[in-house]
Design brief:
Layout: E1 2-4, E2 13-15, E3 23-24, E4 28-29, H1 48-61, H2 66-87, H3 97-100, H4 102-113, H5 121-128, H6 132-143, H7 147-165, H8 170-176, H9 182-193, H10 197-212
Antiparallel strand pairs: 1-2, 3-4
Length: 213
């Protein structure tokens, strides 16, 4: 927490520094690519100052549960910021368009829940209640990538999770990630992580062992 003021006056700016993650499923980091400050003007009726004041007080007193309390208060501020920004047509909120499009959200949620399923563009379009061409156009506009490219990322994340949290054979990991061929899975995994699945599992295991020593 940084207080900025002239020597003879009360602080005019209080800057609270930290970090947080906000994601949709396993693929979309809502703030990950943000490269500019987000500035919005709030009205007194929004009571943002009260939430911030409470958060600052919590940070200052350093009592039990301070982390949970300040996190809760600051989450309210972030949500209020997102709501206000979505109404003001700020360019940075383009990444939230998936949350406002129920049809695309429905299809994407299915991809996240079942990355290893035999999804096709046609089946995803059906899930969204759209024609194939309309689904492709809307999905690509929102994500900037094709449905199959996003699905490949989801499958690789699922595979990486299985490799590091289970002892399942590579063939089983490949099948769970939607690959019937071990060789095609290994090629896709190597392209995503620059390492073979077996070596990836070993590296993560060794890294965990080093931390425990």
């Amino acid at each position: 927490m940084l207080r900025i003021a002239t020597p003879t006056e009360q602080p005019e700016i209080i800057q609270i520094c930290g970090f947080f993650n906000a994601s949709f499923g396993q693929s979309v980091g809502l703030f990950r690519e943000l490269r500019e400050p987000v500035v919005e003007k709030f009205e007194p009726t929004d009571k943002i100052d009260l939430k911030l004041r409470e958060a600052v007080e919590e940070l200052c007193v350093q009592e039990i549960g301070m982390g949970a309390m300040t996190a809760s208060l600051l989450k309210q501020v972030i949500i209020a910021l997102v709501r206000r920004s979505m109404k003001s047509s700020r360019s940075w909120t383009d990444r939230f368009s998936i949350l406002a499009d129920r049809q695309i959200t429905r299809a994407f949620a299915d991809m996240v829940a079942r990355p290893g399923a035999a999804h096709t563009v046609q089946s995803l379009a059906h899930s969204a209640g759209l024609s194939r061409s309309a689904f492709m156009a809307k999905f690509s506009e929102i994500f900037g990538r094709s449905p199959m490219a996003i699905l490949r990322d989801l499958r690789m994340r699922q595979a990486a999770l299985d490799l590091t949290t289970t002892s399942a054979p590579i063939d089983v990991v490949a099948y769970n990630a939607g690959y019937e061929s071990r060789s095609s899975f290994v090629r896709a995994f190597r392209k995503a992580y620059n390492v073979d699945p077996s070596e990836y599992r070993l590296r993560v295991k060794n890294a965990g062992s080093d931390k425990g020593t």
